Amino acid sequence: MGSLSVSGEVATFTVEKIGGIDETTVEVPPGVTVLRGRNATNRTSFLQAVMSAHGSEWASIKGDADQGHVELSLGEETYTQTLTRTDNGVTGSGLGLLTDPTVADLFAFLLEDNEARRAVERGEDLREIIMRPVDVASIHRQIRAAEQRKEEIDAELDRIASLKRDLPDLERQQATLRDEITETRDKLQRVEDRIDERDVDFQTTQENRDELETALDELQATRSELKRVRNDIQSEQESIAALRDERGSLAVERSGLPESPDERLEALESDIDRLRERKRELSEYTTRLQNVVGFNEELLSGEHREITDAIDAKPESVGDITDQLYKGSKTTCWTCGSRVKPDRIESTLQSMRDHLQETVTEIDDIDDELDELTDRRDEIAETRTRARELTATIEEVDAEIERRQTTVVDLRERRNNLSARVEELEERVTSLRTEEFDEVLELHTKANELELELDRLESERDEVREEIADIESDIRRNDELAAQREDVVDELIDLRSRIDRLEAEATDQFNEKMDDLLDILGYGNIERIWLERTDTPDDPVHNSDDSVTGSTFTLHVVRSTDGGTVYEDTVGHLSESEREVTGLVFALAGYLVHDVYEDVPFMLLDSLEAIDAERIASLVEYFAEYPTYLVVALLPEDAQALPDSYNRITDI
Q1: Strand-by-strand arrangement of the 526-534 sheet
Q2: Class assignment of domain 11-135+502-649?
Q3: Quick check: helix, strand or coil at residue 558?
Q4: Distance of CA 502 to the CA centre of its chain
Q5: Residue pLDDT, tens place only, 128-151
Q6: What confidence tier does 311 reach under pLDDT thresholds 50, 70, 90?
Q7: Residue 1 pLDDT grade (very low, low, confident, very high; cuts 50, 70, 90)
Q8: Where are the chain's structural domains?
Q9: Candidates 3.40.1110, 3.30.2320, 1.10.10, 1.10.287; CATH matching 261-313+328-386
Q10: Where would one find coiled-coil regions in this protein (predicted)?
């Protein structure tokens, strides 16, 4: 029975002012229950009350009342529904067994006006009846959304594939630049070494010599500062590259964490609080029950004599003479003072012990469920904490990258200023130089050219390095995207086939059950009644709008003549009995396709008078296999054909 544990439980209905019922209480055990009686004996009214207890509003209020009330006790649960007469009809309130009774109204509550039963007789759209509980338009929207997600993932995967093809060229370019940078640094170092080793002896006046030496000193200092700045830029760029790699790894880890919405965590916390409160209540109750059991056990064993003596202290004339004769073989019940045999108290005590054990078992079950929910809550909390830590770390890394990039910008500006200053100093030295100093000036000029070339190569290398880092970060997402695409494809396959599966299962169930019953019921010259499903060009599985048009269900009737000739007939030529059976089988197909039995324990049958008694008995036996409770309203002469083992109710 799915989520309802009702196997073996007797259902008790308390009904007031429903249909023709003034007030009644009816117990319905599992299995088949026959409501036996003539017309106008409140059989249909009781069936309406059963429907109302499930949350259905297909019930009427007694003519002399403005409100009706139904209460269903099932196992440890109680469901209530109050029907109120308003200007707009009858409205229901309260807690019914079902949140939404639509499927039950269609396929479980098979009264005379049941829509699934009448659809066959009226020639209505059978496919629409079967598919009504399914939100087809929502499925179409989900399909379009999944297709859009797949297209976006495909586009991203194509982009990453293109980047993969570009990556080897970029890596070769990076390696080439690295070699050129190394070669340029070596050249620059050799020139700087020559400058340091050169001993220049100037044949100029002391004034020019001092001025030239000052300019050369400043030029050398500026060049040294330029070299330091260039090294700082390289160091910062390497740090930025390392930070980008770290950020990529952190981002991949964060994207791989499962989603943990706040609503799910709140729901788990609520469930945990509810179970803890229930456990506390049961624990308190268990303690009280243990005290009662323990006290009675002590009383039976002869302890607490002062209590039994006090209870026994009454006049000799009071009490049953039999009690006095058998006083030696009885003991005093401390709750009422009567004399009973000890084994009767022991029997009651054993029932209390059994109930105590059941309560302890329930507490153990709650503990197990609490452990599971707590583990799930902790797992979600840990995931959220890790996601927050990763987000915070990524933000810190981003801030550090931004800070270092700002530093690089400042250093590059400093480098440019120093390069400009070197040029100015070189021009000044040129104006003061002598022939003997020409070689030194040429070395400084060469060194400056190499500095500029080195700056250009390093800037180009940094750009290529950043581009490679971005591509590698995207490539790391490839497996994740491929997994997402596979999930979306599976979702699309499920969505696109869901309607087909339901329709195919509906026709298969109808045809199978119809063949069974035609064989069991033996309707003369009917060879077969079967449901055909044909696709139409505007099948909604492949359509982009929200329409609910799609396959067509066609009901076929095949008869045979006395001579053995087989021919196709129409539904309109079926007898009333044949149409009723066909309608009931169609409703049963919907009942099975939508797994109604998982949530709805009751199936109701009414208005079967068009079918003869023997066939009703076979029909009821066939239907009884599926619901936990099958309640059938029958006339007395029809009820006689059903086995005596069925529960019968004659007075409502």
Answers
A1: 526-534, 552-560, 566-569
A2: alpha beta
A3: strand
A4: 21
A5: 888 888 877 778 888 888 888 899
A6: low
A7: very low
A8: 11-135+502-649, 261-313+328-386
A9: 1.10.287
A10: 136-285, 349-512
